[in-house]
Amino acid sequence: MAYVLKIKARYRRDNTGVVLRLPALLTEKGLLLSHLQYLAEKSGKGQSWRERSTFAIMLLLKYINANEGVFTKTTELLESFATALRVGTIDPTTLEDPSGLYWRVRTAEDTSVLLHFITHYTDWLADRPEYKTQRANPFREATGAEQRLNWCAYHQRHSRVFLNHLPSEERALSRIRFARKIMREGGPPVDLEEVMRFPEASIFKLLDEGFVRAENKSHPDPNKRADWKGRAITLLMHYGGVRKSEVFHLYLTDVDIDHERLEAIVRIYHPSEGAAPEDGYISREDYLAKRFRRMPRTKYLRSERLHSGWKSPVLSNADKFFKVDFFPPNMATEFLYAYKMYIEHQRIEPENLDHPYAFTNSYGQPETIRNFQRTHRNAVMRIGLVPKKKLGTTEHGHRHAYGYRLHAHGFSGVEIQKKMRHRSYESHLVYTQPTSEDVRVRMDEAYERYGRG
User: Fold this and answer.
1) At what angle do helices 397-408 and 228-240 cross, to 10 degrees?
2) 321-323/20-27 β-pairing
3) How many CB atoms are closer than 10 A to CB 426?
4) CA 60, 61, 65, 71 torsion: positive or negative?
5) 198 vs 189: CA distance, rounded Å
6) Full-model pTM
7) What does the pLDDT look like over 413-437, one tens digit per residue?
8) What is the pLDDT at residue 76?
9) Which of the residues 11, 86, 229, 447 has the least number of beta carbons within 10 Å of its own beta carbon?
10) How far apart are CA 196 and CA 389, in angstroms?
11) How far is Cα 290 from Cα 204, in angstroms, rounded to an integer?
12) pLDDT digits over 133-192, tens only?
């Protein structure tokens, strides 16, 4: 019986000691080795990219298995697969699905992303000479996932199936003459998505009354009552614009003090390529491996507790770090105080100093994103707010508040791009656009100013 399962794999490309930990697909014929090789070759991509690629290929294989013998032409199968992604596989009148897939309707954008991942992989596969001999013709006679995908890659190369996506700039002019048979289907035109930011009116209440230690919430000693770790992390995000994933790459040595201004100097290094805090190491990846027998947190699978992502922010130094710019600047002092109180009173030291990370959990191990998300959610509810992304009250709402605050105080687009460490100028726009409520206030003010005439 044909099947496909997503598993974890340890992949070794050669006889060295380097082992890659990758998501993999297991079929009735064994591992889908070509996709493992593809992910290994794209080792510079992040874990989120690898997981999404694996998920897309798994969907295609599941669709092929559920439609055994139905299609004689690859074109028909791929077109039907793209349709199934968009509209689902469930009969809306009976809620039945003879294929057993039971896929729900997806947005046009989500469908396009999945098709892009499949196109990228099958383009790669079509260029691999070792797989060309494994193609079967016609499609319905192919046996095994590898042979089926090889045939999809072959047909895509000759028919330009899926997207009008071309892998190199040199072939850009070919877009005029060629197009993928199954085109990227966009949704209806939408203005910049309205992104909510954490409400400024509630930030001090969140810090002072939300981040308290539940077991000591009535304790008279503020060092026992306050959750200094939660406050310090939130100050980094709200007034420093730091992404939550970036916080968990921070070493103890990455926070310094400007003694003249009594402010914190915070540097966030690339998790693997950044300079090590001690001499004798090539990079942080080298430092973690030799000093602690650990990997950078980006190397862990997304399903593992120690994983923390990296969005490739623009770095500002040859040592591969960026400096956190607090705004308003006096919040660097507030952060320094919260961080100092956390280090002195609440940080659990790791046993045998087996890691360098600044924030630890109750066992002295590196703090996790999941734990902080829970802490932040509880703090938000403690002050009477509802933790929802659309309300701006989740962790990412703080970064949006930072970007909008810069915009409201007259910083230019280029300056905001620099402070938020975006690669492209356009990226900052979603952070600085006014909300519907902002526009309504402006309209009310204009109405009052100019009268009813």
Assistant:
1) 40
2) unpaired
3) 11
4) positive
5) 27
6) 0.72
7) 999 999 999 888 877 777 777 777 7
8) 80
9) 447
10) 7
11) 42
12) 444 444 555 556 766 676 676 655 655 545 433 334 444 334 333 334 444 455 555 555
Domains with residue ranges and CATH for the chain: 4-176 (no CATH), 200-438 (1.10.443.10)
Give residue-wise pLDDT tens across range 42-97. 877 888 899 999 999 999 999 989 988 888 777 788 888 989 999 999 988 899 99
Task: Give the whole-angstrom CA distance, residue 107 versus residue 327.
Answer: 37
Q: Is the peptide bond before 138 cis (omega within 30 degrees of 0)?
A: yes
Tokens of 164: 């009008």
Six-digit token pair at 410?
A: 């007259």
Distance CA 36, CA 189 (A): 37
Residue with tokens 């280090």: 343
**At residue 37, does pLDDT exceed 80?**
yes
Q: With cut-offs at 50, 70 and 90, classify the pLDDT of residue 215.
A: confident
C-alpha 149/C-alpha 312 separation (Å) is: 32
Percent of the chain residues topping a pLDDT of 70: 85
Residue-wise pLDDT for 342-356, tens only, equals 999 999 999 888 999
The encoded tokens of residue 299 equal 């190397």
What is the mean pLDDT of the segment spanning 191-203?
79
Beta sheet of 263-269, edge-to-edge order? 255-258, 263-269, 321-323
Report the 3 state secondary structure along 276-325: CCCCCCCCHHHHHHHHHCCCCHHHCCCCCCCCCCCCCCCCCCCCCEEECC
The pLDDT, as a whole number, for residue 450 is: 74
Can you give the three-state secondary structure of the chain, one letter per residue?
CCCEEEEEEEECCCCCCCCEEEEEEEECCEECHHHHHHHHHCCCCCHHHHHHHHHHHHHHHHHHHHCCCCCCCHHHHHHHHHHHHHHCCCCCCCCCCCCCCCCCCCCHHHHHHHHHHHHHHHHHHHCCHHHHCCCCCCHHHCCCHHHHHHHHHHHHHHHCCCCCCCCCHHHHHHHHCCCCCCCCCCCCCCCCCCCCCCCHHHHHHHHHHHCECHHHCCCCCHHHHECHHHHHHHHHHHHHCCCHHHHCCCEHHHEEEECCCCEEEEEEECCCCCCCCCCCCCCHHHHHHHHHCCCCHHHCCCCCCCCCCCCCCCCCCCCCEEECCCCCCCHHHHHHHHHHHHHHHCCCCCHHHCCCECCECCCCCECCHHHHHHHHHHHHHHCCCCCCHHHCCCCCHHHHHHHHHHHHCCCCHHHHHHHCCCCCHHHHHHHHCCCHHHHHHHHHHHHHHHCCC
226: CB partners within 8 A, 6+ apart: 211, 212, 213, 341
